[in-house]
Amino acid sequence: MKILIRNLIIILFYLTSVPFWRRLFLTKPRVRVWCLHEVKNHQVGEFEKKIVYLKKHYNIISPEQFTGHNLAKDKLNILITFDDGFTSWLDNVLPILKKHRLCAIFFIEEKFVKYSSNLTDEGHVLGGHSTYHLKRLPELSTEELKLEIQNSVKLDFFAYPFGDKKSFNRVVAEAVKQGGYKYAFTILPGFNNIKTDSLFLHRDSLDADTPRLIFKLWLKGSYDLIKKIL
Ligand SMILES: [Zn+2]
Fold first, then answer.
1. Is residue 131 pLDDT above 90, yes or no?
2. Chain-centroid distance, C-alpha 179
């Protein structure tokens, strides 16, 4: 029910043109980051359709293009990311990314590390997502925080577990930076541009089979206002 109300408000907001006009005033180039989790068997078809749609109308960028600021100005840039760690990625995600020659960031939990070479062998980039992913990082002691953020290999990207407003603060961001990460992603919706703090980057969690209309409106920024309300 909440989702239905949210979707109706997104459509309503879009029809009032508020997000449409708002995005025109944002400094370009802009990057929108799509966060996915598991892509289940029945979602694979819809996932590929969305990839094809994004390729046609937007500029899908690799993690390398993101860090190198190699972005399109005339089109919205889209960075694709996956969170947590699902063995179904191997069958349902990797073949599609390979087919469309795309590279993504995979923010994996410790338990998925044994599969990490499956991802990196295909050119994808790994990101940190905490060691245990049990609590929101601001709730931890300094020692616990260190343990959650530490990583045995050097990684540039970090995604705050849970990612909502309660999942990060300045102290946590500083610890992430000390841990060697250069970029940290929230799950707060929005466009990223040169003015966005690299330790509080915007990212939106949308399932692979999110209704097409909602997905399109998300790309245009309608989602941003709605998340602040709901
Ligand atoms: Zn997670």
1. no
2. 20
151, 128 in Cβ contact below 8 A? yes
Q: Which residue would you say has higher pLDDT here, 64 or 23?
A: 64
CA of residue 130 to ligand 1 center, whole Å? 9
> pTM surpassing 0.85?
yes
- Residue 86's domain comprises 26-210
Measure 208 CA to ligand 1 centroid, in angstroms: 16
Ligand 1 centroid to 64 CA: how many Å? 22
Q: How far is the CA of 70 from the centre of ligand 1 (A)?
A: 28
Structural domain includes residue 97 = yes
CA 188 from centre of chain:
9
Contacts of 194 (CB under 8 A, 6+ apart): 27
Kindly tell me if the per-residue pLDDT of 229 is higher than 60.
no
Positive or negative, the CA dihedral 1, 46, 54, 193 is: positive
The count of structural domains within the chain is 1
How far is the centre of ligand 1, averaged over its atoms, from the C-alpha of 108 (Å)?
8
Rounded to the nearest 5°, which phi and psi values hold at 105?
Answer: -100, 135
Question: What letter would DSSP give residue 132?
Answer: S
CB 116 within 8 A of CB 153: no
Q: What is the CATH number of the domain that holds 33?
A: 3.20.20.370
* 10 falls within a domain: no
